[in-house]
Structures are given as structure tokens and as C-alpha cells.
Amino acid sequence: QKEVEQNSGPLSVPEGAIASLNCTYSDRGSQSFFWYRQYSGKSPELIMFIYSNGDKEDGRFTAQLNKASQYVSLLIRDSQPSDSATYLCALGGGRRALTFGSGTRLQVQP
Amino acid sequence: EPEVTQTPSHQVTQMGQEVILRCVPISNHLYFYWYRQILGQKVEFLVSFYNNEISEKSEIFDDQFSVERPDGSNFTLKIRSTKLEDSAMYFCASTQGTSGETQYFGPGTRLLVL
């Protein structure tokens, strides 16, 4: 049974700060990791994915993966009020079903 | 930019009634999925579909559920006899399915069973 754990939050950061979102997972065989953003009442929107250990940067977002520790994180630099949403960590991808965590609610204070 | 579309956006039905939720996946995608999200809970996988057959399904996807690709563009989820606990947001997703591809989600159908 794959489990994905996230702190539900809310995580509150001031505008312009770095927001750090964390996720741990139980399935050591997991290969693909995804971060989705979900605004209230809306569908998940892909932010980025990561497959290899280390960091992957895309604009203000950096995903970090440590397979040995079964840990994946998302850093958001220069946080904006529009970043306020729930961030979902998910495993799987390609053809396989995604397994989602419960999400971390981020609040960026102006 | 191509996107997954879903209809209707909202559906209200009486318990025991049949509902059909519709999705149009991205045109060059080969794998299709249904997920649901009960209010306040995590997104849960229901079923995946490839080459006109189910490729994977979860424990949630019991005999009350069925999926179909009736033509070259639509992908449907049918719930035969709705229960109160079927009230949720239902998301369709699609992917090309090649290694490294991600799943793109439609806007969802909010189903309310009374």
C-alpha cells in the first residue's frame, strides 16, 4: 500500500519569503514524483515533476528528491499571495495511477 | 494549449439514480483516468483506461462503476445507482503514457447525491 504523507498546514509565510513544502512516501520502488497545486474547488494543476535524486529548478520553484530518505520537497521562492493554495504531492506517473498525499495548505500573507 | 474538458460542471441527482460523467481527453493522449475527491479529503484514483479496456482500478471502483470510450473523443464514467457517499468532485485526467509524461486534469464535475 503506497502512502504519501504531508503536513496539512496551514503553512503561513510572508510575501517574498521562501515557502518549503515537504512530503514523505512509503514505497521505495516509487520512481516518479509530482507536485500539483490545487485552488479551492478547482482541479489539480501540475507544477513540476522530478525523477532523479537532487534538485530540479523551474522558475521560482525547486523540487528536491532524496530517495534514500524517501523524501521529496518543494521550495517556492519569492512567494506571492497568488501562491496561496493547497499543494499536493503525488507518486506514479506515466501510465500508472497517481497516489496523492492529503496536501499542504499554503497561505502567503501580503 | 490543449486541455482536458469535462461535462457537466455540476450534477445533482437523487440516490439510486444513474449518472454519466463525460470527459474529452487531450487529443493525442492514449491513457485516461478517473479520480475523485470527497470534500476535504485527498484525491483518490478510481480507474485507468487504455486501448479500450481498463488497465488498472482501485477498490473504490466496484460494480456500480463503469467506464467507456464510446467514440474517438469522449471518455465516460457511469455510476449505476448512486449513493450519498458518491458525492464528490470527479476528475478526468489523461497522458500520452510515454516515460516521463504527466497526467493532466480536467476541471472536474461536482456530483451531489441527495
Structure report:
- The complex is a heterodimer of chains A (110) and B (114).
- Chain A is mostly beta strands and 110 residues long.
- Chain A is 0% helix and 56% strand.
- The N and C termini of chain A lie far apart (40 Å).
- In chain A, the strands form two sheets. In chain A, strands 2, 4, 5, 9, 10 and 11 form a six-stranded mixed beta sheet that branches.
- Chain B is mostly beta strands and 114 residues long.
- Helices cover 0% and strands 49% of the residues of chain B.
- Chain B is built from no helices and eleven strands.
- In chain B, the strands form two sheets. In chain B, strands 2, 4, 5, 6, 9, 10 and 11 form a seven-stranded mixed beta sheet that branches.
- In chain B, a hairpin with an 8-residue loop joins strand 9 and strand 10.
- The model of chain B has no long low-confidence stretch (mean pLDDT 93).
- The chains are: A mainly beta (110), B mainly beta (114).
- The A-B interface holds A 32, 34, 36, 41-46, 49, 51, 88, 90, 93-103 and B 31, 33, 35, 41-45, 48, 50, 55-56, 58, 89, 91, 93, 95, 97-108.
Outline the secondary-structure elements.
The complex is a heterodimer of chains A (110) and B (114).
Chain A lengths: L3 E2 L5 E4 L4 E7 L7 E6 L6 E6 L3 E5 L2 E6 L4 E6 L8 E9 L2 E5 L3 E6 L1
Parallel strand pairs in A: 2-11
Antiparallel strand pairs in A: 1-3, 3-8, 4-5, 4-9, 6-7, 7-8, 9-10, 9-11
Chain B lengths: L4 E3 L2 E4 L5 E6 L6 E7 L6 E7 L2 E5 L7 E4 L6 E5 L8 E8 L8 E2 L3 E5 L1
Please bin the fraction of helical residues of chain A: under 10%
Which runs of chain A of at least 5 residues are low in confidence (pLDDT < 50)? Answer: none
User: Over the alpha carbons, how many angstroms does the gyration radius of chain A reach?
Assistant: 13 Å
The major β-sheet of chain B equals: 7 strands, mixed
Number of strands of chain A: 11
